[in-house]
Amino acid sequence: MMDSRRESSETLRNKCAACYRQYNRMEHLVEHMKVSFHSAHEPRCGVCAKHCRSLESLREHLIGPLPKVECARVFAARGCSICLNLFDSAAAVRYHRASTCQFTRAAPMPRGSYGGRAVAMACKMVGGGSDGSLDICARVCLIGEDENVIFQTYVKPTTTVTNYRYEMTGIRPEYLRDAMPLKLVQRRIQDILCNGEPLWKIRPRSSGRARILVGHGLEHELERLGLEYPAFMIRDTAKYPPLMKTSKLSNSLKYLTQAYLGYDIHTGIQDPYEDCVAAMRLYIRMRSQAHPRDYASGSGETQNNYPAWRQRELERMSPEELLALSGSDYYCCTASVLVY
């Protein structure tokens, strides 16, 4: 009986302070911390404070098919199903959702200022090739943080269009006949993003004038536009780990908007302005989250201070002390140059 209690106590001491996994030996917990990359950036349950790898994991923990019973009970009474935060009362939740959390579909706004350092971009593609499966950029939109349009145009195709995908894009052949040439579109977008700073001079953690590019699936859109932009200046909601599925696959922008902004998009013909607004709102929501620590790098090798020569010292630390050494394996969206 005494041995059983001693073993239980030892296992409890070897419990991860982030995800609450328990290990028989302290050395196993240290190995777990080396590869888990737990950090202050991970979404946490407001009831039990457990860290989750993504917002999708936290959603399953709180309101999924098999939630943690006690956490689900408390969250049902005082939690917001959109931002997944916990509040003091049900009345506070209702006020929060009505005033700050629940968004509505945006109406087109007039051209205005650039509104902050970030710029959101979205494209709509028509089809090329014999079967219409080749994506050709036919429309592009850029907005500022204030959701005002900075640049919006149809793009003249450089190859034959075989499928205008009208039901989804709303684009007709006559819209593209006198559209802006791709070369000019490239130049305009590059000018907006670089903002007077030469592309080759843009550096991480610099205080230059270049703008942060926000969007969903930007790698594909930049490729279709024939543009290059530094990865550390891109915030892609399709690749930001807290917004991805538990299987590390991307969620659609439609799902992210419905789940984390509280309204629907793509209910008819898809407008790139609407996609820009959704991506920008998601980015600003992630950026505004409380982040106790900021990291200069997303590399686990530099973030997690668990070298082999410290092994004996690490095994004497508490789980909380081990967690304090741990850092994210992805860049945080709060820093001006980090890749989210």
From TrEMBL:
CDD domains in the record: REX4_like
Gene3D superfamilies: Ribonuclease H-like superfamily/Ribonuclease H (3.30.420.10)
GO biological process, one term: rRNA processing
Any single GO CC term annotated in Swiss-Prot or TrEMBL for this entry: nucleus
UniProt cross-references to InterPro entries, sorted A to Z: REX4_DEDDh_dom (IPR037431), REXO1/3/4-like (IPR047021), Ribonucl_H (IPR013520), RNaseH-like_sf (IPR012337), RNaseH_sf (IPR036397), Znf_C2H2_type (IPR013087)
Subcellular location: Nucleus
GO molecular function: 3'-5' exonuclease activity; nucleic acid binding; zinc ion binding
PROSITE patterns referenced in this protein's UniProt entry, alphabetically: ZINC_FINGER_C2H2_1, ZINC_FINGER_C2H2_2
Domain C2H2-type: 14-43
Family per record: Belongs to the REXO4 family.
Protein name, as recorded: RNA exonuclease 4
Organism: Oryza rufipogon
